[in-house]
Amino acid sequence: MAIFDEESKRLSIKLVYYGPAQSGKTTNLMRLHDILRPDLKGDIMLMETANDRTLFFDLLPLGFKAPSGLLIKFKLYTVPGQVVHDSTRKAVLSRADGVVFVADSQRGQSTNNGESFANLEDNAARVGIDFDRLPLVVQFNKRDLSGILSEEEVLRRWQAAPWPVLFSSALVGDGVVETFNALLKQVYDSLDREFEFQARHDLSRAAFIAQASGQIDRSPP
């Protein structure tokens, strides 16, 4: 549910990292923030209330302009994974334009992954998001640990799902950028139906992704 300000010709896009506790949502966001060029990001902000926390930062604080003059800005969020913080998760999810679901690859976390994904679907309905149309990417994180599901097992379990499934070790940055770009691709396709990026603004999907990721610097911070 991107927010369009017609007077300023500004489009604000909200992306959310969702998943069970300790799956690596915060690590994803912090690692992405680390490897973005300094001019592409605002400071990481932390909201803490009653033992929960939500991280967010502005991507491209000044935005980027399509050839038509449309200004596009992004804000990235994580949600707290603990079950008791469901109200915060709903609030953060509200008006999201795209979601990365960060799952934990460890074998013992399959139940938590499933429950958290069901919670995402339930909360999307509660805040008025059509889950079937929501741009969504599933990331199986913590591939650097032992005792994890193999990629073949994961893909077999998710083979009927319509969403891209990616693998990562966010702690060292592996798969973080790839996941983000996969989400940007879906967000572009979704918002293009409403805002006609290509037809009205001469903004291709490739240009949208390149501008939003800013030719991310992959060197260590």
From TrEMBL:
Keywords (A to Z) from UniProt: GTP-binding, Nucleotide-binding
Pfam name, any one: Arf
CDD domains in the cross-refs: Ras_like_GTPase (cd00882)
Mitochondrion among keywords: no
Family annotation (InterPro entries): Gliding_Motility_GTPase (IPR052705), P-loop_NTPase (IPR027417), Small_GTPase_ARF/SAR (IPR006689)
Keyword presence, Nucleotide-binding: yes
Identification of the protein by name: GTPase domain-containing protein
Gene source species: Methylomonas subterranea
